[in-house]
Amino acid sequence: MKEMVNNLSEERMGKTTFETDEKTERVILVSACTENALVAKDMLGELADLADTAGAEVVGTMIQLVPEKNGRTYIGTGKVEELKTLIIERNATGIVTDDELTPAQHDNLAKLLDVKVMDRTMLILDIFAQHASTKEGNLQTELAALEYRLKQLTGKGISMSRLGGGIGTRGPGEKKLEQDRRVIRSRAAWLRQELRDMEAHREVTRKQRKRNELPVFAIVGYTNAGKSTLLNHLSDAGVLAEDQLFATLDTTTREVMLNGKSKALLTDTVGFIRKLPHDLINAFSGTLEEAKYADYLIHVVDASDPSIMEKMQTVYNTLDELHVEGKKCITFFNKSDLCNPDDILHMRDHHAVKIIKGSAKNNLGLEELKRAMEEVIREDKVEIKMLIPFSDMKIVNDIRVQGELISEEYVANGVEVHAFVPRRIADVLNDKE
Q1: 393 — phi, psi (to 5°)?
Q2: Tell me, what's the pLDDT at 400?
Q3: Which segments of 296-413 does DSSP mark as H helices, in order?
Q4: What's the burial of 209, exposed, middle or buried (CB within 10 Å: 0-12/13-18/19+)?
Q5: What is the bridge-based pairing of β-strands 354-357 and 328-334?
Q6: Which listed site, 1, 53, 79, 253, has its alpha carbon 20 to 30 Å from 184?
């Protein structure tokens, strides 16, 4: 089945996201921006990073400021002619648009320019396909790619049917498209079932964490903000951390000791990005929802990024789309050592209950971050000062594992304990009094 999908016609599907040419693509980045030149320039800078991560060489850019994007060619007819000239001048082998193209836009541009036409979504899918390292990551990426391919096939039936066939009959082109659609839908249905099975397994893991009563922090943030670096330095997780977009896609959970007296679980998540394709959000919903089921959030922000406010808002918009609500959030302004002192003083985040400034790479602010984590956990726990009999020593062990043990003193009748504990343990102790 998978082989059948991969062999579908590139003419109708575009370049498969699971194939990479040996020669480096020379691409021109194209933006039809409805805002202003500064926004367009910033977005093309991010698109250039995506192209570099995917393995392409950027040899030129083109920006057109428009009230609305052209429905036929994405950019206007005059700009298409300019683009053809630029392609020849730069010896480009393809273009990449900053927005997802409709099937009509893609086909018209490919016909007019006679080079490979790619869009932002296709580029991100390529990167995900290259970086997925687990079975689940590969299945999620393939599902997103198939959903994208299916959209590219939609609406082509009329034009393809004109390849042949008489009145009242389907042309061979449309018949082939219907076969392609059936293959894709069948494969996609199988992938969804596989991912549902994996999600069921993840749910069992989540319930186990709940039974252990260890608080869970989900690390969220814009891609390449430093989430994996932070996880590594807090927990020795050994997760791949590189200075590129979407370096890691797979969820990793590690235990971290906060101050020698309490523990928490840290879960890394897939990085967010502006214009994150809905197909990817849907395919990675199980992984992304780690943030939904966590107790708290750590929002990692690249403090040195010129577009810091826009990217912070992108993260919160994506969390809203995932229905991640009502979580206490600690914002960690990473890479603060690369900023001007005046800029650091004015860093704010009204979504956060605590703000820490530091550098994960250089171990700056990490102890302060641990204290902040401990404080938000403590706010949801109950303080106890009591004598626990030797007959209930299991409860003392539960406090050591699940709570924050401030002090313990062995006396004649048991153990004098001062601790902050989950409400469940406090209720058990109250019942025994």
Answers
A1: -65, -25
A2: 82
A3: 308-321, 341-345, 366-379, 393-402
A4: middle
A5: parallel
A6: 53
Query: What's the predicted TM-score (pTM) here?
Result: 0.75
Of 327, 245, 247, residue with least CA distance to 293 = 327
Kindly report the CA angle at 55 between 52 and 58, in degrees rounded to 5?
A: 50
Q: What does the pLDDT look like over 3-60, one tens digit per residue? A: 333 433 333 333 334 344 457 899 999 999 988 888 888 889 999 989 998 889 999 9
Token couple for 201? 């397994």
Distance CA 375, CA 360 (A): 20
CB 378 within 8 A of CB 385: no
- Using CA atoms, how far apart are residues 102 and 96, in angstroms rounded to an integer? 14
Count Cβ atoms within 10 A of the Cβ of residue 418 and give its class: 0-12 exposed, 13-18 middle, 19 or more buried: middle
Could you say which residues of the chain have pLDDT below 50?
1-21, 157-173
Q: Which two tokens stand for residue 428?
A: 């058990």
Measure Cα distances from 321 to 2, 26, 150, 417 in Å: 31, 35, 23, 44
pLDDT at 244: 59
For residue 230, give the H/E element and its range: helix 227-235
> What residue spans of 238-392 are helical by DSSP H?
278-283, 285-288, 290-293, 308-321, 341-345, 366-379
